[in-house]
């Protein structure tokens, strides 16, 4: 049972809440904190003290005072005018994660949000009524303004929502559930749309997917090593102890486990080959560097998951600080770095695919005994090359760019929303690359029979062969590739 505003929110817990695997609760003391925070805003409004976003306009209009009787209209207009997103709608899981992240931030009591709004957002999650959020339009500073505006339009009866796999007008959805629209109070609209929850949701999704793909890269690499009859010596503990990067140590240990008990590895220990190509020999260093990037992103994401990122921050009945906690740069730069790390996993995987086709050390060229008439596994490597190249083109760091907005008031922005979206695109391409490597590795392993491999690799080999037969003569490989991609997407390949 997760307690909003109190418990530490990890990326895994956020995923579990969004998927309905973890229940949530609002403790009485958090309710008291929310009421106190709301009271502070009401006091600021009554005092007529100039406070950004409470009784002023927004952005470059921060010097325009708004009368007390118009503060509610100001908040409504804020949502309407900032909901300018375009493009396809993000997956519902991303919208759910945005709601989870925003709820946890608001419940910490620095935003002046009302209990009514909190309860309505929890109702949306509990009843799987998910706002439809376009994927484009955020520059990642002053918060993810456009996507968050779309996320919260249904509170005022505007916008659209997912109901199952259908999209309906929010007004219709509210009416069907007997819900009235909410009249936002002073500061509430600003508290809702200022924040990094769009960037954060993409980061959480990517962390979860990349965690599996890091482990899967080791498995695919181990299977390729077995097919290539590479050496296990580069994974010796003594070697990595004298350059003890955390990622390298982890991958080397995993490789030792993945190859443990292999008859194939033992069979060629005295073959006279001095060393393997880098894509085999340097897996701990390359895969490990990608792990190091993942560790760093996880650390930053879990800070952000438990932070308050709207503006202004309400500290007391007399004080509100207008700062920049909404700026997405801390996540944007790390997302760009981790995108490169994910791309590199695909890059080295493609190199291993190519290596298996060269016809060395007992493998037939193109992994077919009947080359010439048959192309064998030649062309799937074209696909991995294309995907690896596409990923390279996606690695331009979005956070290196900034275009001023809001008449110069917001003169440096993070573009972190683009970083988050690209990160997940790269991971999707990586899934496909690794699926093809696993298919080629299984084909190569066939040529090492009757030798046996480790228990975990034998198990995964059997899973692959239950979906994709050994390629004896040319056939339509698109179906095989699609079956492999499905195995990867379902996380059916055992990684530990």
Mean pLDDT over the residues: 94
Trace the largest sheet across and list its strands. 4-6-7
CATH architecture of the largest domain: Up-down Bundle
Our measurement of the CA-to-CA distance between the termini, rounded to an integer number of angstroms, reads 28 Å
Largest pleated sheet = 3 strands, antiparallel
How much of the sequence lies in strands comes to 5-15%
Low-confidence stretches: none
User: CATH H-level name of the largest domain... which superfamily?
Assistant: Fumarase/aspartase (Central domain)
Return the CATH class of the largest domain. Answer: Mainly Alpha
Shape descriptor reads: elongated
Estimate nothing, just give the exact number of structural domains: 2
Rg over alpha carbons:
26 Å
Q: Report the total helices.
A: 19
Order of helices and strands: EHEHHEHHEEHEEHHHHHHHHEEHHHHH
Number of strands: 9
CATH fold assignment of the largest domain: Fumarase C, Chain A, domain 2
- Tell me the structural class: mainly alpha
